[in-house]
Amino acid sequence: MSAVPFEALVRRRLADEVGRFTKEAPTTVALLYPSPYGAGMSSLGFQRVYRAIFDMPGFACERIFLDDEAEQDLAQQTRPHSYESLRPLDEFPIVAVSVAYELEIAGLVRMLDAANIPARRTQRDERHPFILAGGPLTFSNPLPLAGIVDAIIVGESEELVEPVLRIIESESGDRARLLARLAEVPHVFVPEHHGATLPIVAKVDNALLPAWSPIRTPHAVLSNMFLIETERGCSRTCTYCVMRRSTNGGMRLVSMDQILATIPEDATRVGLVGAAVSDHPRITNIVNALADRGAEVGLSSLRPDRLNDDFVAALKRGGYKTLTTAMDGPSDRMRESLERRARVKHLIRAAELAKAHKMDRLKLYLMVGLPGETDADIDECIAFSTELSRIVPLSLGIAPFCAKRNTPLDGKPFAGIKVVQDRLERLRRGLRGRVDVRSTSAKWAWVEYVLAQGSEAEGLAVVDAVREGGRFADYKRAFASLPVATMAKPRRSLAIAQI
């Protein structure tokens, strides 16, 4: 991308933003998102940190995103510049990066390379920006970032952003002292000092809830949508999920009055965000109140056992055209193994409600390649999905199962690329002409799995893979070259065999 088109693109996007902050400050932080602008501006966590930095006396931040073209081909990434001033990434003293999931590590590496900032932390010194990481990935396993970034805020960061940034700013001339001081801050992981020992996940005071997004833009994936938490965490015990009951005390609710009071009156689209939004006891009232304002409403999570006539009617009033919920596993047996409350009766009821309220279709998300899964489970999914498709048009969104750290299924093996591909093809054949079946890549799910279960060595292998071109074959070679001894858990030596 040449400089002129990038500048024109930035000017257009900035002109269309509502709610952006401006401030002159002695210290300006680069707030980096290693995916394109549309994804970054749809991230409530990224926008929350943006607001937290601007709330700090003496600090401001400028946003930097992966180039749009680089999402499909990392080689297309140009030298990163900020949106606010077009300042190059390498000229900022501090880079704060939010990482949502494992595959975004590649985007971070490519952006550092394109900025001529050494991607390996051991190759950086006082001449280079200090790289601070945080984000959703830290709730599960941030260890693959340990060889790349200098420090990581683990968990909820709102209360830690200010003290951490002030330490970095005050000790900028003495890297050793800076790292030593950060290592003493609770919930901050400093690889040079802590090795592979992660701190406890941070939990902020409930008084800081809810998070909400200051900036709305038509160029976000969630176009012109004001994002706000209805709750944080979850009260359920799903065995595959990081945000389960045992994480940070489970669900922490935000009152209906506080939610409605925080949403601007001119917000025409509102996104209600959380791990279990539909479990909020007043969710139907909240959606109806927003519909009364004339707002279109979106929810980040709908549980099938929470759907009833009043709730779906409210969703319809809020602009829903597709009823989207979770099937989770391909069979009742698999859903039971995941400790999911969704049952056949709930999914049938979801289809009936979608039809009754004249939704265009029902969309169900599920995983394949679960521990203990067989072709019989896939065949049950085919039969049941066919039954649902007779009630209402049906789509399935499918992701291969990847075991995450800090869950009961931590360490479970990846089913295997061929196994997953065969099961996806079995589903497609069985449902062809009746159900729309879309899935994420089995190959890239395997890469995600290796990183999700991996350590610093796997993260540094991403550096090698990106520099070789970032293709699947490059990751396969980079991971295969790792000695078993470098892996944090011996059982991950099975990862390569599970291709």
TrEMBL record:
SUPFAM superfamilies: Radical SAM enzymes (SSF102114)
Domain Radical SAM core per the UniProt entry, residue ranges: 219-434
SMART domains: Elp3 (SM00729)
Domain of life according to the entry: Bacteria
Xref: PROSITE patterns: RADICAL_SAM
Protein name, entry field: B12-binding domain-containing radical SAM protein
Species of provenance: Pendulispora albinea
Species classification: Bacteria, Pseudomonadati, Myxococcota, Myxococcia, Myxococcales
